[in-house]
Each structure stands twice: as C-alpha cells, then as structure tokens.
Design goal:
Order of helices and strands: EEHEEEHE
Largest sheet: 6 strands, antiparallel
Oligomer: single chain
Helix content: 10-25%
CATH class: Mainly Beta
Radius of gyration: 11 Å
Number of domains: 1
Structural class: alpha+beta
CATH topology: SH3 type barrels
CATH superfamily: Ferrous iron transport protein A (FeoA)
Strand content: 35-45%
Distance between the termini: 10 Å
C-alpha cells in the first residue's frame, strides 16, 4: 500500500482509504476518491506539484499534500 503522491507517471492503483475526517478529506471523497476507484497518475508539474490524475472518466490536479492523504493499493 502507498499514497497517490508516490506513484510514478503512467502507473495506477485502487483507492483504499482517505486519511482524516476534515473538509479536505470530505472534498476528496466528493471528487470521487472512493474505495475501489481506479486512479492513474497522468503527469506531474516540473517541480512535482501539482499532480494530475485520471479517475472516473475525468482528470483532476491535486497538490502533493492532498494526494498524500489518499491511500492506494498499487498493482504489483
């Protein structure tokens, strides 16, 4: 298990959980980061922040600190 910010470009995994129960965690849930959701890292900005992900048919950019809160099960 790892976090979204540790994925390499072009790799993917399934969401396991979101760390915390604050407004950011609820917003990530609202954006579609539900357990079992397939998420792929599309690309990172030159300095590594923000990070673009593809999930549920759309693309989304997150800050590194937000991506670090999403735990995923990466395929082996």
């Amino acid at each position: 298990m790892t976090t979204l910010d540790r994925l390499k470009t072009g790799t993917s995994g399934a969401v396991v959980s979101i760390d915390g129960d604050d407004a950011i965690a609820r917003r990530l849930n609202d954006l579609g980061f539900w357990p079992g959701t397939h998420v792929e890292l599309v690309r990172k900005a030159p300095l590594g922040d923000p990070i673009e992900f593809s999930l549920r048919g759309y693309r989304l950019a997150l800050r590194k600190q937000e991506a670090r809160r999403v735990m995923i099960e990466a395929p082996t």
